[in-house]
Amino acid sequence: METMPSYAEDIDGGRSPSVSMLSEVAAARKITIVGGSVPEMASGQLFNTCCVVGPDGEIKAKHRKLHLFGIDIPGDITFRESDTFTAGQEPTVVDTGVLTMLDGLVLGFVMISGSQNWQCCIDQEVHT
User: Fold this and answer.
1) Is position 36 within any domain?
2) pTM listed for this prediction
3) Is 106 contained in some domain?
4) Number of domains in the chain
5) Would 102 be classed as within a structural domain?
6) What are the percentages of helix, strand and coil residues in the chain, rounded to 5?
7) I want to staple 108 with a disulfide (CB 3.0 to 4.6 A). Which of 10, 43, 68, 99 is the partner?
8) Would you say residue 41 has pLDDT above 70?
């Protein structure tokens, strides 16, 4: 993870090979793409970022991961994303015209499968 900053991309500044590729494919195929993780450098901080690119090739939303992964098993492994990445500050909501996504959850899932599955989704998001 120490080398991650050397791979960081400037999404807002238009210098992101990853997002450029997603934009080209989305526009060529006339589809919406949710793509990430992209190491994004912004304001001197490194974020784990995902972009939603619309069928016109434009970025519809940009999400910076809120809940950074961490594990500490004494005597075995310790890993914390927060040692490298800065957590995002707010959930991201984007309407793609087909599904609405919120912080990595597909809210359309609830409409299709029923509200009893909502708590399962929330529990999973809290623990990821």
Assistant:
1) yes
2) 0.74
3) no
4) 1
5) no
6) 30, 35, 35
7) 99
8) yes
